[in-house]
Amino acid sequence: MKGNAIIGQSGGPTSVINASLCGVIEACRQVADIENAYGMRFGIQGFMEENLINLSAEDAAVIKGLRSTPGSALGSCRYKVQEADFARIIEVLRKYNIRYFFLIGGNDTMDTIHRVEAHCQAAGYNLIGVGVPKTVDNDLFGTDHTPGFGSAARYVALSVRQAGWLARDMQKVDQFVVFQTVGREAGWLAAASALARTQEGDAPHIILMPERPFDKDKFLGWVQAAYDRWGFVSVVVGEGVCYADGRPVSASETTDRFSNIEFGAMGGASAATALHRMIADTFGWRGEFQITESLPMCGADRASKADIDEAYACGAKAVELAAQGVTGVMVSIVREASTPYSVQLKTAPLSDVAVRAKPMPDAFINAEGNDITPAFLEYVRPLVGDLPDYGRLTNITVS
User: Fold this and answer.
1) Burial of 307 by CB count in 10 Å (0-12 exposed, 13-18 middle, 19+ buried)?
2) Is the same domain home to 239 and 373?
3) Any idea which residues carry the catalytic annotation?
């Protein structure tokens, strides 16, 4: 089909989401049937307001620069499309002769493109829709991992390593530190903090993931054991950790338009502050909590090279598929091997991806539910790359 393409970004950003955008735009310029590549400012919400820009008119050097640019260059939104919106969406598609529809995002975004593409097919409007995966949470079905996760995992691992060294050296002042990662339903980022360790006793000592119910008594027992052994305690917690009855440890009840709990939305309540309070109240210790929130989503200075390359490749692959007439799919990363690392780009049906969260498999979590297994480290290391190490005193005692 001859026509124009539209590209959008939605949900939270990643440090490599603009690399995917770069891949889509540059690939569109190579397809004769795509006359212009347009961008929707602020996602589907901006699209319905006809807030569109002509990406084909941008200088090639500007587009190339997106590959290492943080944020979401097109602007983002978290708008949930309603049935009443489809008439307007098709109206705008027709007006600008848009025949190729690309959205870069996570499971909620894949729900949006899935519904738009399906509605157009039912209405007799020819539209090819392909999703480009993105999320720091790494919780998309249909793909081994998502662009954005590797860089966010690197950010977490570096932060926990550096904060862990600080906590070790300040243990006579602050006896514990709690670091919180994003991830509503999956603990991939919390688990990635295990890369911070290089020898026994390094932070983190306890990793709490949403895949396992939180037990206060067990948790406090782990805290005491770590303190007795190492003299300080480093805890990493995924924001979505819940008790066995489903209550969030953060105590948050606020939800967004997709019915997702907004952790930390109630007067600063969060899993990290709740755990901090438990430890301080139980042991009388002084400690810190560290909540990075959106920082791992935009830390371009800590981006993983493999992540940047794969994000770009996924964007370009989406256009390649669309040019072949493939629609209703998301680009999928399929791992062939971890050592040496090797992947192929394939597809997953949007219907299998939309509004679902992929938890960590049991094989990646230890029996106690407070740490990871070697299998997870094998999985995550190629995505993050090498981390810097730091000098250690041997602490030779004066005789």
Assistant:
1) buried
2) yes
3) 137
